[in-house]
Design goal:
- There is one protein chain.
- The chain has 2 domains: 53 residues, no CATH class; 148 residues.
- The protein is 79% helix and 0% strand.
- The chain has 12 helices and no strands.
């Protein structure tokens, strides 16, 4: 869903390009291509920025909140804010939309991790295609099941540093070392950007 600012930018861009077309005698097809590219940038640049690059979690949260009509964004926004009913609603929609277990595995497992019940979705973890994500949840499952040594060893092999720190934090919490866990929570946040940073901040800095 476009914001009012994006609508205004698109209208202004279309008008300006129309004037340039007339003044410079640019062929219509070239103008159409320029308008298409401009609209694409206006729509997708903010999405890419807030999803993957922004370090301002307040702005990222507002961006997600305005777009919760999209099931995927609703799911992650409600997950970050522990809104269980909305999370379950979004998950149900996503499962209906994407029938394949491979497609819904990440959402199913993320929900279970939030509920601290990964043991219930062991099979779904194996359906996650991304190796880093799959091993991350496997490590969290081992923490949940009390296999702390195995969890620590698996965490050390994770390629994404924020995942290592997040698993270490969970492990220390289980051991009752809350102060030490907070150190790793902060490191995990510092190593992330975009939506992932927003989710971790909301989770760790309540």
């Amino acid at each position: 869903m476009l914001s009012k600012k994006q609508y205004i930018l698109i209208i202004i861009a279309a008008i300006l390009l129309g004037f340039l077309t007339d003044i410079l005698q640019i062929p219509f097809w070239k103008t159409a291509v320029l308008i298409f590219l401009t609209v694409t940038l206006i729509i997708y640049v903010p999405f890419v920025w807030y999803m993957y690059f922004s370090r301002n979690t307040g702005n990222t949260g507002e961006y997600l909140k305005r777009r919760t009509r999209q099931p995927i964004l609703q799911f992650y926004f409600s997950l970050a804010n522990s809104e269980t009913d909305q999370m379950e609603e979004a998950l149900s929609i996503l499962k209906k939309k994407y029938k394949s277990p491979q497609m819904t595995a990440v959402f199913t497992v993320a929900y279970a991790a939030h509920q601290e019940n990964l043991a219930a979705v062991k099979e779904s973890i194996q359906h996650i295609k991304d190796l880093s994500a799959r091993q991350y949840y496997e490590a969290l499952l081992k923490v949940e099941e009390g296999q702390w040594d195995d969890a620590g060893k698996l965490a050390s092999t994770l390629k994404k540093e924020w995942m290592k720190e997040a698993v270490k934090a969970e492990l220390l919490h289980k051991k009752g070392e809350a102060d030490a866990a907070k150190v790793h929570e902060s490191k995990a946040i510092d190593l992330t950007k975009g939506m992932q940073r927003y989710i971790l901040e909301k989770r760790y800095r309540k």
